[in-house]
Amino acid sequence: MVKKNACVFISGQGTNLKELLKSSREYNFPINIKYIISNTKNAKGLKFAKLYKIPFHILNLDKIINLESVLKELYKKKISLICLAGYMKILNKNFINRFNKKIINIHPSLLPKYKGLNTFRRVLENKDKLTGCTVHYVNKRLDSGKIILKKKVSVQLNDSEETLKNKVQVKEYRAYSESIINIFR
Ligand code: GRF
């Protein structure tokens, strides 16, 4: 199979990145991760970039001056998919316009419910019985692009933000890989 080149954007732990890296090692998985971008040098997930020997770059995409050089690098590396994996910055609108390939994101709620931050807190406050995660295309409105796939998690009476996060993240790993398979099928 001819794999497409992908770039993953992170800000924190990078557990989704780690799972994507594992999937990308499988013969039949449609992407190879060729580049990793973090908005901070303190992102713990950068250790996976080092472990898997993937080039990475620390970037402040808010600075327009950086935009051109990143786009140049993405085109040079023939990147046809960007996966946002816990990237905590809002992507520059100009960047979304200019990168005319696919950009996808994973969000820890059943969109369109609970866009933005603190999703688990809001699920618990509203006594929802179900939550989960959503993989979606990125457009210029926050967490609003076309939905690719959702996975549900049931909320138990004794759940805390922490336990919910842990349960949802396990679903995220599968959801992200399945979505990428669907996109390139
Ligand atoms: C994920 O749970 C995702 O839903 C959200 O940010 C979290 C990042 O976790 N967008 P990690 O950095 O992949 O561990």
Helix content: 25-40%
Give the CATH architecture of the largest domain: 3-Layer(aba) Sandwich
Head-to-tail CA distance between termini: 12 Å
The first-level CATH class of the largest domain is given as: Alpha Beta
The number of distinct structural domains comes to 2
User: What are the distinct ligands in this entry?
Assistant: 5-O-phosphono-beta-D-ribofuranosylamine
**C-alpha geometry:** globular
- Rg, rounded, reads 16 Å
Number of DSSP helical runs: 6
CATH level-3 fold name of the largest domain: Rossmann fold
Mean pLDDT: 95
Query: How many strands in all?
Result: 7
How do the strands line up in the largest sheet? 3-2-1-4-5-6-7
Biggest sheet statistics: 7 strands, mixed
Q: Which structural category do the helix and sheet elements fall into?
A: alpha/beta
Strand proportion:
15-25%
Which SSEs are present, and which pair or pack?
Blueprint: E1 4-10, H1 15-24, E2 31-38, H2 46-51, E3 56-58, H3 64-76, E4 79-84, H4 93-98, E5 102-107, H5 119-125, E6 130-137, E7 147-154, H6 161-183
Parallel strand pairs: 1-2, 1-4, 2-3, 4-5
Antiparallel strand pairs: 5-6, 6-7
Helix pairs in contact: 1-6
The structure holds 5-O-phosphono-beta-D-ribofuranosylamine.
Explain what the structure shows.
- By secondary structure, the protein is α/β, with parallel strands linked by helices.
- The chain contains six helices and seven strands.
- The chain has two domains: 100 residues, Formyl transferase, N-terminal domain (Rossmann fold, 3-Layer(aba) Sandwich), CATH 3.40.50.170; 80 residues, 3-Layer(aba) Sandwich (Rossmann fold).
- It is 35% helix and 25% strand.
- 5-O-phosphono-beta-D-ribofuranosylamine binds next to α1, β5 and α6.
